[in-house]
Amino acid sequence: MRVPGSPPPSDLLTSREAARRLSVSLSTFWRLVAEGVLPAPLRFSARVVRWRAVDIQRFIESLSPAQRP
Questions:
Q1: For residue 23, what is the DSSP state?
Q2: Could you count the other beta carbons within 10 Å of the beta carbon of residue 6?
Q3: What is the CATH number of the domain that holds 46?
Q4: What does the alpha-carbon distance between residue 57 and residue 18 come to, in Å, rounded to a whole number?
Q5: How do residues 9-63 score in pLDDT, each as one tens digit?
Q6: Considering only CA atoms, which of 55, 61, 22 is closest in space to residue 39?
Q7: What value does the CA radius of gyration of the chain take, rounded to a whole number of Å?
């Protein structure tokens, strides 16, 4: 069941999926999140955290071509 107004599940990424798109390890991904380098996640509960795919894609596009995965 989907909450009205929330993005479709396919538009949300787990930390593992987002790290894979960025070509970084999971620990590097979480470090970048903690440093505020990456977009803030959506928190559905203490253990359920997701990122909007579009936010991760925008972050990738904001990098210089040499920095892109």
A1: T
A2: 12
A3: 1.10.10
A4: 9
A5: 579 999 999 999 999 999 999 999 999 999 999 999 999 999 999 999 999 999 8
A6: 55
A7: 12
DSSP string, 13-67: E-HHHHHHHHT--HHHHHHHHHTT-SPPPEESSSS-EEEEHHHHHHHHHHS-TTT
Cα distance between residue 56 and residue 40, in whole Å = 10
Q: Which tokens sit at 9?
A: 């599940």
At residue 1 the predicted structure's pLDDT band, cuts being 50, 70 and 90, is very low
Structural domain span for residue 35: 9-62
Instruction: Decide if 1 is inside a domain.
Output: no
